[in-house]
Amino acid sequence: MSGAECSPKNLTLSLTIPAITVQDATPLEGDNIRDLTVRKEEEDDGCETDSEDNSIEQDEEIRTKNEPAKFDSSVFESDAAAKATPMSDRNNAIPAEYQAAEDEWEAVETITPGTGGDVPVIVGSLILYEEVLSHFQSTNLTEYIKDIKTSVQRTALGKLKHYLFGPPKLASELHEERNFVFTLGLCPFDNSCSIHCKILQTVYRQLTGNKFDCPRYGSHWEQIGFQGNDPVTDLRGMGMLALLPALNFLTDNKTLPLAREIYRLSLHETQNFPFFVMSINITRIALQAMREGCLNRECNKRKQVLPILNIFYVGLFYYLFQIWKQQHKTIRDSGFVIKDLEQFAKKHPKQILHNLNLYFAEKKSPKQSPSNSTHRKQAATSHNTNLTFASVCEMKPKAEEPSL
After folding, report:
1. How distant, in Å, are the alpha carbons of 66, 126, 198, 205, 218 from that of 116?
2. Can you tell me the distance from the alpha carbon of 210 to that of 206, in angstroms, rounded to the nearest whole number?
3. What is the DSSP letter of 217?
4. What is the rounded distance in angstroms from the CA atom of residue 201 to the CA atom of residue 199?
5. 176-214: per-residue pLDDT in tens?
6. Tell me: the pLDDT tens digits for 80-100?
7. Contact at 8 Å (CB) between 376 and 382?
8. Angle 238-347-341 (CA atoms, 0-180°, nearest 5)?
9. CA angle at 305 for the pair 359 and 397, rounded to the nearest 5°
10. What's the first-to-final CA gap in the chain, in angstroms?
């Protein structure tokens, strides 16, 4: 078969080749080729260096996380050497001024905050009534004996009346204790005596609830019913006896709740009154009742004098509290008619003590004595429906009758 015959039977394949566009077809020759080669090698070296640096940094981070922290042993060696150094050598190494400051700080036992201005206060311990009583019993008070007045002077008719209808005489074995009580009324406050100062601090803290002692002078004393910055000025008429029944009132767990209840009333918005000045007046009334023999029967019965005076003081304060609260008395009602309270105390000392006993019985077992409260209210108002009170510290002692 010839080629011409087979041509029609030949298969024709057609391939489509995409066009390739060459932006710069200019050949590189000579230095251009070498420059390109050098730049390529530098780029390759830079990438390898960065990669190696990053790898090294990562390895370091991994080792740092896995390895335990290392401490400078020289720090511990220096501390150990300091501890091993004798105290005397260390003190010698400290400058004198720093050592003095350290000694002064170590000598401080308590915090001494101020309560106003630059006056510091200390945290002192409260003083007990028994401790104060022991102090006065061991103090020489003979210089005041000649000035005490244990009874009132009466006319011949008054003596006869007192003998027939008056209270019994005080037992002779109680005369010494009675004289002791009256000498306390002449014993002045002594600023140099720590016991005297502690009494003031104790009554202040017991009433206010403060944990710190207060300055000796200041307006804070008016908060508990004194009349000025110095409470001693209110004590001159009664001496240390003005504080002793009050101290017993405020440190006895049995009577302290009553004392604080009376104190709260003294701070009332409308029924307020100066607590401590009223307390001093009540002490004066109790002492005058003892001077006139009104407490002799009770003293002879219990064979005590000062404890009877203290409980009579509490009874009078409680009686005053009832009148003041129930009759809605205010300071405007105060006047010289507080003398009526004094007269009632002298005529009915037994009722004063009875009312107080009812109060304690009710507090001890309130469920068993529901009628006590009503009975005490009736007793408080039965003899004093028109009773008002004098301004504090205005009452003068009753004039003594001239002797024959």
Report:
1. 60, 22, 20, 17, 9
2. 7
3. S
4. 5
5. 999 999 999 999 999 999 999 999 999 999 999 999 999
6. 454 455 554 544 555 666 676
7. no
8. 55
9. 85
10. 192
279 contacts: CB under 8 Å, gap ≥ 6:
225, 242, 245, 246, 249, 317
Nearest partner of 333 among 286, 270, 379, judged by Cα: 270
Number of helices (H) and strands (E) in the chain: give both, helices first.
Answer: 17, 0
Q: Which DSSP string do the residues of 61-114 spell out, in sequence order?
A: HHHHHHSPP---HHHHHHHHHHHHS-HHHHHHHS-HHHHHHHHHHHT--S---B
Name the residue among 70, 63, 303 with its Cα closest to residue 170. 303
Inter-CA distances, 79 with 83, 91, 92, Å: 6, 16, 17
Task: Look at residue 389 and give its three-state secondary structure.
Answer: strand
State the amino acid at position 222 in one-letter form: E
DSSP 9: G
Read off the pTM: 0.65
The CA-atom distances, in angstroms, between 351 and each of 162, 315, 354, 376 are 20, 9, 5, 10
Residue with tokens 């209270």: 167
